[in-house]
Design brief:
Elements: H1 3-7, H2 21-41, H3 55-59, H4 71-82, E1 94-95, H5 104-116, H6 127-143, E2 151-155, H7 158-172, H8 177-180, E3 190-195, H9 200-208, E4 216-219, H10 229-241, E5 245-252, H11 264-274, E6 277-281, E7 306-309, H12 311-314, E8 322-326, H13 329-336, H14 365-400, E9 404-406, E10 414-419, H15 426-443, E11 447-453, E12 456-462, H16 470-488
Parallel strand pairs: 1-11, 3-4, 3-5, 5-6, 6-7
Antiparallel strand pairs: 2-8, 7-8, 9-10, 10-12, 11-12
The protein binds pyridoxal-5'-phosphate (PLP).
Pyridoxal-5'-phosphate is lined by residues 98, 157-159, 199, 201, 252, 254-256, 281, 283-284, 310, 322.
């Protein structure tokens, strides 16, 4: 340790050793005012942070302060040094990845969660945390028309939810994997299946669980980017004949690139026939089943073993919040439960620490409860429906424009398309669209995404922020057309 620093005396008049309730109130009110203003005017900021790599770090000292600092100074530095490096997910002009929203009720729920600072590892460590989690996951399940046989847990991300699904499926094989592991023993190759359009989290789950990347079979899709069940059947049969052990299938409702929907009922039949675990990744689009006109979206999922949807994607709840349901949580307990003496508790109670790897757990159910109650099912459906309408509007404009081309169906709120002027070959079209993508994002006016579909570079607009209105989509369409004119000139 640096002796000079150690010898320093505290700054006068007094070091910061405790934030009093009065001080908390003063700064808290000011911060709430700042947040309210931000939520209302986030479009004032460039959507994508306009900084170079390392620029924010260079503004920050190499070492932390020896003595505490005035909170007002910290907030001032947040505005001057941190805010410029923020990409504004809250902006109504954010259309990249899947657009998300932190809403008033969810932010206030999060604040209360931080204040209570509950660690919900055991029922005993805060009975309300466990019991509210059970209740809100049940409420959402019923709204999505999923049967009572599913039980829910809240995780941080869909990636972890899908990993839990694969772990439960592996445990369901009854091959002593918990005690003997997967290596150096009499175990055939375990094979998992998902579409080539599935999210990378399915492959990552396989990596984490020792399945091996080669054994995560990425199955071909049809012209609408839906998993082909004939290809899946063929792959499962080929693996079985080779002496491997197929065990897990992940279907997607709302794939990341195009939001395509896999044929769940057919996949469920196949899984039943071959005794495979069926997991449904509905991280983005599952919540669309809240809408009366889409109440049948999850048809076939009643036959699945597990399903995930993310309130932190399209249910107006701030990151992180993923809801995972499975029919046999006991399998997770069999896979993961380890209870040392200091965590023992008596009675038939649900301790969520037994459902996975994590011991400490955030009280996420509180913010979800706030959101579900504040908006109600119809309020949530209203916003989702509006996003779907806006995506349809943009898709119609694209379809009607002579030099734009839509590259995938638009079942929800995401539109994939490209600028395709005449007399340009495929590689020129790719270059023009790449340029458009960069120019638009660098402008700070909007933040859109990109993907590759059928080897064609595609622009992709995902609508999902609660503040996005028709005027923002009109402005985006104008920006797209102006940028197209710029890159072709
Ligand atoms: N599944 C799908 C279909 C996704 O689109 C995503 C992320 O966009 C995920 C899973 C991963 O979500 P998370 O970031 O919650 O792990």
């Amino acid at each position: 340790m640096n002796d000079n620093l150690q010898m320093q005396s505290p700054p006068s008049p007094e070091p910061q050793l405790h934030m009093s309730a009065d001080e908390f109130r003063q700064h808290g009110y000011a911060l709430i005012d700042w947040i309210a203003e931000y939520l209302d005017h986030s479009e004032r900021y460039p959507v994508q942070a306009q900084v170079q790599p390392g620029e924010i770090a260079a503004r920050l000292p190499d070492a932390g302060p020896e003595w505490g600092e005035d909170f007002a100074n910290i907030i001032a530095d947040f505005e001057s040094d941190i805010l410029p490096g923020i990409t504004h997910w809250h902006s109504p002009n954010f259309f990249n990845y899947f657009a998300i929203s932190a809403t008033g009720p969810s932010i206030l729920g999060e604040l209360l969660t931080a204040a209570l600072n509950v660690n919900g590892m055991l029922w005993l460590t805060s009975p309300a945390a466990t019991e509210l989690e059970g209740r809100v996951t049940d409420w959402l399940r019923r709204w999505l028309q999923l049967p009572d046989s599913f039980q829910g847990i809240i995780t941080d991300t869909a990636s972890i939810s899908s990993l839990l699904a694969m772990a439960a499926a592996r445990e369901a094989l009854d091959r002593n994997i918990r005690s003997e592991g997967v290596s150096g023993r009499d175990l055939p190759r375990l094979c998992a299946y998902t579409s080539e359009q599935a999210h990378s989290s399915i492959t990552k789950a396989g990596l984490a669980l020792g399945i091996g990347q080669e054994n995560i079979r990425l199955i071909e899709v049809d012209a609408d980017y839906r998993l082909r069940t004939d290809a899946l059947t063929h792959a499962v049969q080929a693996d079985s004949e080779a002496g491997h052990l197929p065990f897990f299938v992940a279907a997607t409702i709302g794939t990341t690139s195009t939001t395509s929907v896999d044929p769940i009922p057919q996949m469920a039949q196949l899984c039943k026939r071959h005794q495979l675990w069926l997991h449904v990744d509905a991280a983005y689009a599952g919540v669309v089943a809240l809408l009366d006109e889409h109440a049948d979206l999850l048809q076939g999922c009643e036959q699945a073993d597990s399903i995930v949807t993310n309130p932190h994607k399209w249910l107006f709840t701030n990151v992180d919040c993923s809801v995972f349901w499975l029919k046999r949580p006991n399998l997770l307990k069999r896979a993961f439960s380890v209870v040392p003496q200091y965590l023992q508790s008596a009675g038939e109670i649900n301790n969520y620490m037994d459902w996975g790897v994590q011991l400490g757990r955030r009280f996420r159910a509180l913010k979800l409860w706030f959101v579900l109650r504040y908006y109600g099912r119809r309020g949530l459906a209203h916003h989702i429906r509006e996003h779907i309408r806006l995506a349809r509007l943009l898709a119609d404009w694209i379809d009607g424009a002579p030099h734009f081309e839509r590259l995938a169906p638009v079942p929800f709120s995401t539109v994939c398309f490209r600028y395709a002027p005449p007399h340009t070959d495929e590689s020129e079209k790719d270059d023009l669209n790449r340029k458009m993508h960069s120019l638009i994002n660098e402008s700070g006016a909007a933040f859109i995404s990109q993907t590759v579909l059928n080897k064609q570079f595609s622009l992709r607009v995902a609508i999902g922020n609660i503040q996005t209105q028709e005027k923002h989509i009109r402005a985006l369409w104008q920006l797209l057309q102006d940028t197209a004119a710029q890159v072709i000139s």
